[in-house]
Amino acid sequence: MSDQHTPLFLHTELSLLAFNERVLNMAVNPSTPLLERLKFLCIFSANMDEFFEIRVSGLKAKADSVVSGESFDGLSPQLALDEISVRAHALAKLQYETLNQKIFPQLTEYGIKFLQRDEWNEDQTKWIKNYFKREILPILTPIRLDPAHPFPLTINKGLSIVVDLHDPDRDERHNIAVVPAPRALPRFIRLPDELCDSEYEYVFLSSIIHANIKRLFSNVKVLGCYQFRITRNSDLYVDLEEVEDLARTLEGELPSRLYGEAIRLEVSENCPKRILEFLKNRFQIDDKYIYPVNGPVNLNRLIGLPEMVNRPQIKYPVFTPSTPDHLGIQADLFEAITNGDILLHHPFQSFAPVVDLLRQAAADPDVLVIKQTLYRTGANSVMVEHLTNAARSGKEVTVIIELMARFDEQNNLSTAQKLQSAGAHVVYGMVGKKTHAKMLMIVRRESKKLRRYVHLGTGNYHQANTRVYTDYGLLTNNKEITHDVHEIFMQLTTQGPNPELSRLFQSPYGISDMFIDKVQREARNAALGKPAHVIAKVNGLSSPAIINALYEASQAGVKIDLLVRGICCLRPGLDGLSSNIRVRSIVGRFLEHARVFYFENADDVNELFLSSADLMPRNLRNRIEQCTPILDDTLKSRIIENLQIYLEDDSNAWLMQADGQYLQAQAANQESKPRNAQNTLLDKYSENY
To answer: Same domain for 435 and 524?
Structure first.
């Protein structure tokens, strides 16, 4: 048993921060292609934005509350915030060191340069001056502060410039100005080819404003200017029990996200103490939430650069997702599904068959009904186009749209309005429970009978994501599975209780109960000396009930392999508690997103499930999720083989330690060729595996 003073669980937010550290490591790692390293820096930056907007702001609210107490890991919100501050500051320092000392210098070797102001030659300076006058100056609104000109509203994550002025006729408080940079302006600008020594030369918007700041304040001495960015609390607070029209209420609440409580201040590291104190007081922010940076404060805006430059040698190799031979563009998808269940593994295999199925359904006169859940779709979704076409052609189209999908609320509101205009029935799911299940159901008349076809996925109906997220999708017309999907859709539109299902499991509670029951069965088998093995591949594991069940199974002798990309609150490898549990996190070219549960089931056929749900309280208790069994032995064997490939990865895998730290997996010996699970799967599927 673990030491009595060792908490049985790890802190959720600290575990998420550890994941972000693994993402940053992809940028630090010299084996990652150079432009991909820049991408990972940007992804890390975006991840940390959300971490502060949601996680840190939530912890801070708990710490400020009079009822604040310890979480299930034994750490108080205030202590957690203190630890986060130490770690996050160290990560931010590493982030900018990697950018300035590694990535930018190496990019220059490939003709890609970001020029500092002291590097501009005379012709470049002249061009930049004209560019500022023509493209930037007409859009800027510089504000010099005084009682008649208060500090402007600075939007969440927006770039701003604070200007230090000297005017002997004014007191110190009124010797400050602020210049917000409108989001319409690009954050970096390419210089004309004829002015450059290298093929690609860029300057930052902040540098251009800095170089021309005196044109904004010509009647006063400018001592300096410094970029800063405020991150704000971005959680939306909507009382779902009280509102009468969720869409209208949400439209009213979304603007508040831009101006929530300040939770982090990023500011140029050379900002004078006097100006820094002014900003600190203005935003009512403590020192531990202030992050001095040596570079662009809005680093994630650089993520578009790799697509702007033609440098394939420093990018990941291009690949084309494969499509099974019998699912080509001319294939009759209904006939193909009738011939047997179809499993698609993205991004290694194309998402096109799913899109084609919906396209064919929209045009097929025998299709009567289409129902689909939408959580995230992206802008200009072709799936939405097919749904609107189906509705316009007179089919019964019902779409369950999750308006509360974080940071996709505005896009989902627009999607809902578009579908409603086409005549589709749009519902917003269950009151108080997000609809996170990934389901598409088509009802078709065949030989005077109605037959259902369904797609069940582990990921969203978002075509861009299917090219970078690893997910599974199942296409089937199995009568029991399609009946269960029908029942869940009925629940979503009638607001009924969880239905009785014959094959699927559903959250709230159903998936958790199933998982714990299967784990306990494995424990009983292990106690009887029978083979017992559990494999779970998820994005997050924080459910205390499931963690406790896994601990008990480990003590009974069950072998447990957990592939957890992000948050993991379980402590593996503790003697007497979790010595039979291994946890690994895969962080690589693609975002690991699939949720898969495997149980050996020694007394019968082994069982394997695909799910939309992670093993976290929010998924298991507060969301509508689905979990489907894989009944076809061939498909099941393929997924189990894939899981084994991930468990053998020693290239992108991180092995979790009992204290929550992660060690990078190492090859068994120096002669062994590194095993990269994602590359292995790319190779296998390119052979139509």
So the answer is: no
Rounded (10°) CA dihedral 281, 85, 22, 541: -110
550 and 468 within one domain: no
Do residues 52 and 178 share a domain? yes
The token pair at 421 is 């205009």
The domain of 516 spans 506-686
pLDDT in tens, 567-586: 999 999 999 999 999 999 99
What residues have CB less than 8 Å from 647, skipping those under 6 apart? 535, 561, 563, 584
Instruction: Choose, from 345, 346, 386, 436, the residue flagged as catalytic.
Output: 436
How do strand 434-435 and strand 143-144 relate by DSSP bridges? unpaired
Residue range 304-341, pLDDT digits in tens: 999 999 999 999 999 999 998 888 778 999 999 999 99
* Domain termination residue (choose one: 250, 281, 314): 314
Q: For the domain that residue 617 is a member of, what is the CATH number?
A: 3.30.870.10
Round to whole Å and give the CA distance between 664 and 651: 8
Neighbouring CB atoms inside 10 A of 337's CB total 22
- Are residues 343 and 424 part of one domain? yes
Q: Cα separation of 28 and 24, whole Å?
A: 6
Q: Which two tokens stand for residue 30?
A: 């010299």
Kindly tell me if the per-residue pLDDT of 246 is higher than 50: no
Taking only the tens place, the pLDDT of each residue in 644-653 is: 999 999 999 9
pLDDT digits (tens, 9 = 90+) for 174-207: 689 999 999 899 999 999 999 999 999 999 999 9
Rounded to the nearest 5 degrees, what angle is found at the Cα of 538, between the Cα atoms of 535 and 544?
A: 85
Say yes or no: 473 and 573 in one domain: no
Q: How far apart are the first and last CA of the chain?
A: 44
pLDDT of res. 5:
59
Does 593 qualify as catalytic in the annotation?
no
Per the domain annotation, does 6 fall within a domain?
no
* Both structure tokens of 285: 């922010």
- Please give the tally of structural domains in the chain: 3
Distance CA 454, CA 474 (A): 8
493 and 511 in a common domain = no
Domain-terminating residue out of 468, 502, 536: 502
At residue 519, the 3 state secondary structure works out as helix
pLDDT at residue 410 tops 80? no
Instruction: Report the C-alpha gap between 355 and 663 in whole angstroms.
Output: 40
Average pLDDT of 57-80? 80
Helix (H, G, I), strand (E, B) or coil at 71: coil
- Give CA torsion, residues 321, 442, 423, 416, to 10 deg: -50
Exposure class string for 45-58: b at 16+ Cβ within 10 A, else e: bbbbbbbbbbbbbe
List of residues 6+ apart from 161 with CB closer than 8 A: 178, 179, 180, 181, 206, 209, 210, 213, 225, 226, 227, 228
Q: What is the mean pLDDT of residues 550-561?
A: 98
Quick check: is 7 in a domain? no
Rounded CA-CA distance 10/660 in Å is 7
In a domain, 140, yes or no: yes
Going by their DSSP bridges, the two strands 469-476 and 591-592 should be labelled as parallel
Whole-Å CA distances, 26 to 22, 46, 100, 464, 673: 7, 15, 16, 21, 20
3-class DSSP assignment, residue 606:
coil
